[in-house]
Amino acid sequence: MSLPLTLLYVVYLVLVGVFILYSFFNLYHLLRFGSPLIVTLGVSLLYLLGAVTLLSTSWAFISGIDWSSTIDLLAPPATFTGLN
Amino acid sequence: MPHGFYLPHALPNEKIILLLRRHWLVLFGRELVWVVAALLPIALAWLLPGDLQGLAENPLGYPLAVVGGSAYYLFLWLFALNAFVDYYLDVWIVTNERILNIEQHQLFSRIAAEQRLSRIQDVTAETRGVFATFLHFGDVHVQTAGEQTRFVFRQIPDSTAVARKIASLAEFRRRFEDIREELHRAQL
C-alpha cells in the first residue's frame, strides 16, 4: 500500500490556512480593541514579520521536496525509519 | 488621556486617572511556555544528532519533519500572539467619574462593565503568593451598589496603592455629589 506524499502537503496547507485564519482573528481583536495604536501596530507588524519569516523559511525547505513521489507503507521498518 | 488610550463613550470632562493591566510577570510567564516549547526541538536535535541525519535521508521522514516542524513553529507563534492579545486586552480603568472593567475572555468573548465612583461601597486589596509579595502585585476587589456588585482588578501592580486611590476617589465623588444635591435643594 502506497501513500502519495501530496496528501501530506495538502494536510500542511490546511494547517497553514487555519494558522492564517486565527492570525487574522487575533490581529483584528488587537487592532480593534487595543490601545494605544502605536503598541498594537508595532506588535502586529512584528507578528506579521515573524509569520512571513517562518512561512518563507518553510517554503525554502518544502520547495526542495518531490511531492509527486509515493511512500510504500508496507516496506520493511528499517527502510521506513531510515535507520540502518 | 494618559498613554494615548482611547476611552469609549467618554463622559463630558471625563479624564483617565488610572489605566491598569496585569503585571508584566503574568505575560512573561505565559510567553515563557512558548519560548521553551520553541527550544525543545532544537534541544532534541542537539541531543540526538545521529537520528537527525537518518531522518534527513528518509523519503517519508524528511517531508514529515519539514511540514511538522513548520506547522509546529507557526502555531507556537500564533499561540504567543494569542497570549499577548489576551493579556493586553484585559484593562481596568479608573476615571474621575467611573471605573471600567474590560476583559477579553477568549476570541469573540469580551465583557465590559462600568460603575460610577459614587456607587462604590468597599475596596479591598489582596496579595497572595511569593512573586506577588516581592513584586507588589495582586487583586483589587471593588464592592458596588450596582447590578454587577463586584469588580475584580486582577494581578495589577501596586494593588494596595490602587485600592487606596479608588477609595479616596469614591469618597471625594460622593461628597461632591452630596454638595451638589444640597446646592440644588437650596436653589429650589
Give the secondary structure arrangement, pairings included.
The complex is a heterodimer of chains A (84) and B (188).
Chain A: E1 2-4, H1 5-33, H2 37-62, E2 70-72, H3 77-81
Antiparallel strand pairs in A: 1-2
Chain B: E1 16-20, H1 24-47, H2 49-57, H3 61-88, E2 91-95, E3 98-106, E4 109-116, E5 120-126, H4 130-135, E6 137-144, E7 150-157, H5 159-187
Antiparallel strand pairs in B: 1-2, 2-3, 3-4, 5-6, 6-7
Question: Main attributes?
Answer:
heterodimer; A: 84 residues; mainly alpha; two-stranded antiparallel sheet; 3 helices; 2 strands; 71% helix; disordered C terminus; B: 188 residues; alpha+beta; PH-domain like; 2 domains; 4-stranded antiparallel beta sheet; 3-stranded antiparallel beta sheet; 5 helices; elongated
Structure description:
The complex is a heterodimer of chains A (84) and B (188). Chain A is mainly α and 84 residues long. Chain A has one domain (2-64). Chain A has helices at residues 5-33, 37-62, 77-81; strands at 2-4, 70-72. Chain A has a two-stranded antiparallel ribbon. The radius of gyration of chain A is 19 Å and the shape is elongated. The two termini of chain A are 23 Å apart. In chain B, the strands form two sheets. Chain B has a four-stranded antiparallel β-sheet. In chain B, strands 5-6-7 form a three-stranded antiparallel β-sheet. Chain B is α+β, with helices and mostly antiparallel strands. Chain B is elongated and about 95 Å long. The model of chain B has no long low-confidence stretch (mean pLDDT 89). Classes of the chains: A mainly alpha (84), B alpha+beta (188). At the A-B interface, helix 1 and helix 2 of A face helix 2 and helix 3 of B.
